[in-house]
Description:
4 copies of one chain form a homotetramer.
Chain A: H1 2-8, H2 21-42, H3 51-63, E1 67-70, E2 79-85, E3 89-94, H4 124-145, E4 149-155, H5 164-170, E5 179-186, E6 189-191, E7 198-207, H6 223-237, E8 246-253, E9 264-273, H7 276-297, E10 300-309, H8 316-329, H9 336-347, E11 361-363, H10 376-382, E12 385-391, H11 402-407, H12 411-433, H13 436-449
Amino acid sequence: MCNRLLLLLPLVAAPVGAADDVLARVAAHAERFGAVSRQIWETPELGFHENKSAALLEQELRANGFEVRAGVANMPTGFTASYGSGSPVIVLMGEFDALPGLSQKDEPEQAAVTAGAPGHGCGHNLLGSAAALAGVAIKEELQARGLKGTIRYYGTPAEEGGGGKIYMIHAGLFRDVDAVLAWHPGDSNRVNLGSSLANNGGRFRFYGVASHAAAAPDRGRSALDGLMIMLNAVEFLREHVPQETRIHYIITNGGAAPNVVPAFAEANLVARHPDSQVLDGIFERIMNCARAGALASGTRMEFEQGTNYANTLPNDELSAVLGRAMQKAGGYEYTPAEREFAGKLQATLGAEVKRAGPEHVQVDKSEPPGVASTDAGDVSWVVPLASFTTATFVPGVGAHTWQAAACAGTSIGRKGMLVAARTLALGAMEIYENPGEAAAAREAYRKRLAGRKWTSHIPADGKPPLDYATK
Amino acid sequence: MCNRLLLLLPLVAAPVGAADDVLARVAAHAERFGAVSRQIWETPELGFHENKSAALLEQELRANGFEVRAGVANMPTGFTASYGSGSPVIVLMGEFDALPGLSQKDEPEQAAVTAGAPGHGCGHNLLGSAAALAGVAIKEELQARGLKGTIRYYGTPAEEGGGGKIYMIHAGLFRDVDAVLAWHPGDSNRVNLGSSLANNGGRFRFYGVASHAAAAPDRGRSALDGLMIMLNAVEFLREHVPQETRIHYIITNGGAAPNVVPAFAEANLVARHPDSQVLDGIFERIMNCARAGALASGTRMEFEQGTNYANTLPNDELSAVLGRAMQKAGGYEYTPAEREFAGKLQATLGAEVKRAGPEHVQVDKSEPPGVASTDAGDVSWVVPLASFTTATFVPGVGAHTWQAAACAGTSIGRKGMLVAARTLALGAMEIYENPGEAAAAREAYRKRLAGRKWTSHIPADGKPPLDYATK
Amino acid sequence: MCNRLLLLLPLVAAPVGAADDVLARVAAHAERFGAVSRQIWETPELGFHENKSAALLEQELRANGFEVRAGVANMPTGFTASYGSGSPVIVLMGEFDALPGLSQKDEPEQAAVTAGAPGHGCGHNLLGSAAALAGVAIKEELQARGLKGTIRYYGTPAEEGGGGKIYMIHAGLFRDVDAVLAWHPGDSNRVNLGSSLANNGGRFRFYGVASHAAAAPDRGRSALDGLMIMLNAVEFLREHVPQETRIHYIITNGGAAPNVVPAFAEANLVARHPDSQVLDGIFERIMNCARAGALASGTRMEFEQGTNYANTLPNDELSAVLGRAMQKAGGYEYTPAEREFAGKLQATLGAEVKRAGPEHVQVDKSEPPGVASTDAGDVSWVVPLASFTTATFVPGVGAHTWQAAACAGTSIGRKGMLVAARTLALGAMEIYENPGEAAAAREAYRKRLAGRKWTSHIPADGKPPLDYATK
Amino acid sequence: MCNRLLLLLPLVAAPVGAADDVLARVAAHAERFGAVSRQIWETPELGFHENKSAALLEQELRANGFEVRAGVANMPTGFTASYGSGSPVIVLMGEFDALPGLSQKDEPEQAAVTAGAPGHGCGHNLLGSAAALAGVAIKEELQARGLKGTIRYYGTPAEEGGGGKIYMIHAGLFRDVDAVLAWHPGDSNRVNLGSSLANNGGRFRFYGVASHAAAAPDRGRSALDGLMIMLNAVEFLREHVPQETRIHYIITNGGAAPNVVPAFAEANLVARHPDSQVLDGIFERIMNCARAGALASGTRMEFEQGTNYANTLPNDELSAVLGRAMQKAGGYEYTPAEREFAGKLQATLGAEVKRAGPEHVQVDKSEPPGVASTDAGDVSWVVPLASFTTATFVPGVGAHTWQAAACAGTSIGRKGMLVAARTLALGAMEIYENPGEAAAAREAYRKRLAGRKWTSHIPADGKPPLDYATK
């Protein structure tokens, strides 16, 4: 009931300054791209399998005059869409992959559409659609005003672990880019110099010797023992790494049958830290835990590299541009029905919410440490990039929850998406109008890079792990 | 190559005493039931899914004059086949389920027919076929000599964990039975008073609270933590249970995604001990480990009852009958090709084999402790039952190995199967000829039971877990 | 050699403003109390056993006209020393206990005076002496100027875990106090609104059943198993508590003989968090881990309450007083010999030191989270209290290290101690001169308290655990 | 009360065959050596510190005409006592060390004489005294009858872990010995071909990096973590070693203070198995667990060799001699007071006792696997040795318990001791009378040795760890 109401509510934009033509263009396409975001939300697809989602966005951009190149960097769902020529070259990034197991209706109580199926718990249905909406508005504005420059939309698959952007970096797609303007769904409208966590991870595989677990357990060497000794050791590690570190894992194979000593076992582990270099040191200690598990259990261990994202380098200059843009873009207000939905959802959070509402816009120069990881971090090591969040989720709702998945399908999500599109459009236009800002962004980037060089444990072999989310 | 040779070799029976008409009848059907065993070997089916295997055996028995009742005890692949009337009522039991992951060609090196597919690593293709072969011979002999009594074949599904026989006990199918003659494939021809291990097990499920593992791990309560704390505690238990105890487990669900604190985790655990009552005490301590895991991790634990087999009560009287029968039945000798196959297979065992060859028959009154578990154990608590093994596997080869699966498809397996059929036929005939032995067997059973009563944690609700092997 | 040089170096105070008579009084007694600090450093005594240290300070204060009451709050080494009458009542606190195992010479390399013996790794020899020096100077100044008010010195034993101050609170010794001015040795001169970590801890005792570990391990129930299952579970807890939490433990009894299943085992565990209330929740989860250890191992668990210190509530008003005082007090400079000593010591730290030198004074309103715990925290919940550190240790040196113990015996430690005495004296005099500040401090205290009430798990039964450091 | 009664009860020997002069001699000295056993029981001394106990036994043997050599093999409490000359050379072994923490009154309820003090929980006060009593009787008999041969008493210290006999082997003291007749206190009178468990063990020491556990846990590397990861791994090992294996450990150092990351931690671990060679393989896997603990925790591990005892090789010939001797020696009966004492003690055992009483003598050729370890095992690898037990403890009472320590001080213990002395005396006399038996024993020894050679991880450097029991 509730969701139907929300779905039909008009997408009312916040009041707009008179001269802002690009905002009018955003408003003109808002309903269409809101519907696009809803369509992607209704067909959630896992990383590298976003066939419908990518195709829909490609089609919309093509229909609006972009030149689309599909299947870039050996990724069937990776694409670029481009308009204009010459610099400044500005890239908007669109993610559209869903998360496993987070299927959820657009209701304020936990209810899967299909139990166990994927869902948009990170709001990427909005992410990719808002960027496309902004891209179309910018293109029209550039065209109308005859401004020099290139606007591009990069369809970046598999942000949730597959690292589509890293393959696009390796493929050289960021080489001529002046600035990347990025955003992510969140529970408030906010621009600052926050970063993301570097992460590194992969699959630890143990190989032992099978044996009948009742008749001859002493002749077996348990791969699961090796894995558990490793993981127990990792738990002991927690006390002795910097407190900002995160280490989390699941066991993806814990043996075939209880009456057989497991000859194979596997865990998928991810570690994170605000600094890629510190993380490398911690990860080597995790590797030692894995080696110890094999040594102590008489088994063999193999590691398969998985996700490896760098932390995001903030860009002071582009961040200032986006701060100005968001202040102009403004927040939004809940309708009574949305307020009711928000209240019900917050009641499920188990803690009082003390965060600013969607009508607020927060812009400052703080540098909050990240709490999540993204392959946008790697992009920030190779070109100037700034990022922001908007209130697509009810205040207090975190990413990767059913509550986030619910919001992403409602008018609340679409209003937040509109704030994002408006901010991106205004931000980009400021750069086109003042090309010096691209140079300043480049300088700010160099300063944060401080002579370091981007590296990644993900090999530059152009072979994305297209089955990573389903194997 | 090798296997083709073996497949074509004639099944030469050991020399037979003159008056043993029933052995001649066994010989007459040997080739047909050898082919049946091979056909079942070629289409390995998991417990409760033995549709082709059960249908084939039902059809053979029906064609040979048995009255077949299919789908007994709410099990689609459970059936009874009966001939004759009145007592003594003798039951031969036929198992025919395969084991997951043991797909294997009939070659002396590890090579799956289909990687990851089931295979007959416990030789049940031979087990069910030998019993059917014996049944047909006995039926013909009873018929020819006009002897009083009933011969039955019970098709008992899902011995590997599903406990088909227990549902048949609950359904009353053993109430009027005088004696059960059972056998199992092994690596030697042997009759003694050995037992099997009682076992008990099931699925331990932990339910926690999901949370983003990087952003808010402190708000999550990890179901996997609960499981690992439980399993670690179980490891500490090992030192403080009788050394004959066996506890083994696999982790069947270790979380959904590394970046989400697992809200669900599950292990499948089995414990065993030579005595059901001691095992109950140990299992309660394992339950305490599980409760402790939940308590320490702030999660919730649920237990779903799985396999629960009693230890086998030996029957001194029936065992003596089978001993005499096997001595008359005799062993068998390898052909040169079989000898070569056996040598190659033994070379893969990693240890010198010091066991008697298939030409030997071992009969004594020793009571070796069991190393495996079987639902035949439960049957032995409700009616007189005795059991033996024959050399279907090359000496040194243990059950639940690829080597066993390989043997079960060769002429070696079929020669061992023939020893079994001959022993069953001779043993049954001795009882029909001397009905007093049924009473003696009943008395021997009462003595071993010693006033105890069979109980099972598997509920008498007539709802077999038909999906246990595939879920 | 080096230390002898350092010992003989004159204690040169930083330049002093003309009118600051109290600073001249500090200077007049500096050499004497420097020697007192050295004498305490040479006879390090564990908590509640500081007999020589307390007696020496009592004697010095008595000799300087203080009225001394020894053995307060049922603690032989607890005492109060008082001069003057009426309000404002200002308390300076003196700690003087050493740490086990930190015996160290006053040299820049690790070298115990007596291996395994206690040492002043927290610089409490300086702490108690500086407060006494300031107390004497303040007393003389009050006397000379005929100012109204009371200056007290509280000799507070056993800060390192025994919680002497808590027993003094329970004994009512803080009831009429207006302000407590506290300090602690550190590696820089610094006043801010920093806090300390609340802590809570004690001894977890497991009781099992002994048995011969080879002959009948199954009849034993291992207390050590219970303890290890608990501690393993605690390791899993680390991921799911706020990252500022600290949990650390030692095993104080891990069994009597390897061939006996341990009937007793014990750990001493401490947990910390910036907020007492959050800590209480975390500690309850640790208790659940302990209960789980007992449950899973079939043993019994008992908890004996140990240290429980509240976090420090900052006092904005008194902190401002101390900030002004320290700016007037000034820092100090190294002599060439001290500089050499500092350089050698820093070279042992294994990391480049990026901290301000002792010539700097840092005063701000930042609120850095604490990294250690102190029973001064509890005092701050019952009366206005502010605290600061001075550079008694070479920059980069942390408390509870041999490097800190070395510094505490040198002229570097004594120079830092002089900065502390000067700051305390100036701060106290400002309050005596402006009694309104006491009321303002009370108001600031009420604001930070925010209606909460001090509680402690340490019972108000007046029975300090006098043997806690030696049992 | 009760014990006083028991103490005063006359030591009534079982009826004796007429011609057995040596038994009359045993009877003549029984009261004196009973008192000796009581005196040693009243002054329990730990291994290598048995100064009073050894001195008392040396004095008694010297007084009875033995030539005593004290302080052999660099052990102050090791000694030999000899009478006669030439072969056969028969050795009786006397142990006299107590166990830590087993102080116990001679009452049927747990009550320490001195809490925490040592006690004779293994009955070695009886062991050494019975052998001395037998030695004196044999000496008198040899003397009276002018028989050729040598009788020796070896005072072998520190059987409980110190391995006194191994140092005596290394010192060549067994080179000219024909037969060793050994016994051990037990709960029944029994001769068979039982063995003991080989054992191996020592101290695993971990060295980490200390750090303040609250301020900088990430800079610490916890030695205790290394130890716990090792020990957790050892728990996982239990499933995958032969079930007769025993692995047990205590933690002898688990850190110094909870607020310091432990830089040192230590465990004392012992492993056992019926076969020395299999044990060596298992111990290497335990070493791998220790290495894994160091690797995973970033610490360093050192191993200090401790106890290493071989399993006992049974001697068929000497065992037959002892069997005949015990049958002649006979058991004994309880007085009413002893029966009451026994009943009360058994009531504390928590399980019904189903063992034969002390009036029974059990002699057979069974080969029960051992449940404990002894350095008599090593002796059995270098010379013919046989052993037996007598009922010095109430049936059902195991060694290393307070119940055993209680019995060892009562008339029950002394009656059992008398059975032992009678058996030893009769056995030795049979050999002196039939010297061919010594050669037969040598042949039986060679057969069991089967070409193997005695080795020990305890170095032949003649430096016994005299402080092993007290450090």
